[in-house]
Description:
Blueprint: H1 14-17, H2 30-33, H3 38-45, E1 51-54, H4 61-71, E2 75-80, H5 86-101, E3 106-111, H6 118-129, E4 134-139, H7 143-146, H8 149-152, E5 156-159, H9 165-179, H10 187-197, H11 201-212, H12 222-228, H13 241-255, H14 259-271, H15 276-291, H16 297-312, H17 318-330, H18 336-351, H19 366-370, H20 411-431
Parallel strand pairs: 1-4, 1-5, 2-3, 3-4
Helix pairs in contact: 9-11, 10-11, 10-12, 13-14, 13-15, 14-17, 15-16, 15-17, 16-17
Amino acid sequence: MTKGLFDEAAPRPLADRLRPRQLTEVVGQDHLVGPDGPLGRMTAAHRLASVVLWGPPGCGKTTIARLLADSTDLHFEPLSAVFAGVADLRKIFTSARERRTVGRGTLLFIDEIHRFNRAQQDGFLPYVEDGTVVLVGATTENPSFELNAALLSRCQVLVLRRLDDAALETLIARAETESGRSLPLSAEGRETLRALADGDGRYLLNLAEELIALPAEPLLDAAGLARVVQRRAPQYDKDREGHYNLISALHKALRGSDTDAALYWMGRMLAGGEDPLYLLRRLTRFAVEDIGLADPDALRHAVAAWDTYERLGSPEGELALANLVIYLGTAPKSNAAYKAYGAAMRAAKQTGSLMPPLHILNAPTKMMKELGYSQGYAYDHDAPDGFSGQNYFPDGMARQRFYNPPERGFEREVRKRLAWWDKLRRERRAAEPGDDDQS
């Protein structure tokens, strides 16, 4: 075993035995712990501010917190928000104040800090504010959603990255050095091992520990590795940020007409256990928002896919969902109808309760006829070209154009129709008696 880099051999899990003993040994987080990173600068100055470490499982949050305490000579006080309560916090704060009187600071590390409720988070504030503790919180959830604004204002949020292939390979090499032998993997098996870890260093080392116990021969390829290790479920939480990140990726890939990427994100969500009906609802929304009348069949396909899934169920119904993603990804895109709706709603709110012009109102009573209701109405079907060109906006409101179809898909034809009616409208208005434009 290599001395100095790893902890001494002990009957502990491999992941624990290989836990770094200084910040420079942390892999995959150089943007934070390197000389130019915020934590690197803090430890170099021997002054540590309260921080929240946000990142996926197995990326080194707990390890970094422990090393920060060691490098700044602070007493390390770990706590899990899953098991701890207010009473535990009070004991820690009391001990921290006593420790402070003899010149020793305390680093309070709270794992899964988002598990504390808002009132419990408020309880940290005076102790963080007066320096009784340096707070280091760890969370896998978006702090802006899960933590109080007051607490966030007192802490710097640092984002940890999932471990890339290079970082995972470094951990594999350390595991092999620690065990004194190579893992029984072919090049393909080694690549598959990194893929199975899915950016989680702790999970990778747990798998490596299983493999170290196997004979050196034969070398395992991807299929062989799959037979001896347990594939875990993808990292995905249907009611938290990962859910919204992936549906955003799917929506934007479709908007960008990248059908293959959209299929990938759909697959990721389904593999993570997402409800296909949720995806179908969002894809139907996409059909009306991002395709609209550029391809009127998009909405019909969405509704048909939804209906098909409800009839077939899983797993057969997922094929209808895949067909829909392909259709939407390859369809012409237009948000003209979406923008027209928004513009019309803004105009409706701004103009208040303007009455429709009298000539387009029905006159079912004598009094209404005497008041001019329906007077001068032109029945479009009797007009040349089936178009009267009359004004249908309220009196006193200038004509507005809300809908501007692009030169794409079916809307190219719609644009021609609108241009034709604009031309006829100008001609009809020019021919009206007393019109300033009359020649």
